[in-house]
Automatic annotation (TrEMBL):
This is Wu:fc23c09. The chain crosses the membrane at residues 7-25. Keywords: Leucine-rich repeat, Membrane, Repeat, Transmembrane, Transmembrane helix. Pfam families: LRR_8. It comes from the Eukaryota. The keyword Transmembrane helix applies. GO terms for cellular component: extracellular space. It comes from Seriola dumerili (Greater amberjack).
Amino acid sequence: MLKILRVLLLLLLIIIIIIMSLHHFPLHPHKFLQPPHSLPLFTPNLLLSSFLPVVQCSDKGVDRVPYGIPYNARYILLMNNHIDTWARCPGLLVLSLSNNSLGNGSESLPNAVLSPLCNLRTLNLDHNQLTSVPQGLPLSIKELYLKGNLIGQFRGGAFNGVSELLVLDLSANRLTNKGLLRESLLNATHLESLNLEGNRLKQVPRHLPRSLKTLNLEGNLILSIKKAAFSTLKNLEHLGLARNKIFKVAIGAFRTLPVLHQLDLCHNTLRQVPRQLPQGLHSVALSNNKIQSVPRDAFCWGDKSLTLSRLIRVQSCALSNDGNH
């Protein structure tokens, strides 16, 4: 009789455990991604927490996105693996696939493969082997990171419609002016921050979104700044042009930027301070150039001039007293 009671208690305990597990992860056929036999199955030791919609799969040495990930997952971290294929997971907010092998083959990241992720806010594809910006991305993305790839072309079609993109990082790639097309950022009408540092640009790109507030063009091959280079960027507040090969700036090239606060022109080959700088500037960095003179209208022109309260930095320059240039 005692043995029967023990068996019944054990069965009751098993039933309770099953009910509790179903409460946290209901085994509904539509709530889990079903894996084909050839792909790795998601296992509990890859889960950061069994009670949070966060999946931690970084540094696991996997070469595929694991299947069996809970349908309600909101954050999937897959950094530092060898992944070169992707599978869908609805409802995702943040997806990080940095430091992988995406881009090795034509099927690595097929067009529009991420488009069903209609709630995705942040996509990190840093340090892969992508040769172009992925096509058909979700319009919901606000932050897109593509640093350290092999991107040489930004074709139109990354967003099929007006996107919500605010931040785009394309630094440390192989972009040239020919690779940035008129339609590349046509639908990024809300973009505020664009990082193009460390590419192969020889002039300031054209057709940039008027909404930009921060533009980083440092570490490129730009030789000169034309007068109309920034004429459409009325909202620009921060501009980085350091570590280029700039030797000439057209008169008033920066004058068209009424709210520009920070301008960095360090490590170029300028021989004089640019003329007619914006009157709202707080900081101008001109160190490590070949500056020999400060023109009369560099900081003072028109009806107003830059006030002494503004921080103007001209460091490590060999300045002469010739103010007639």
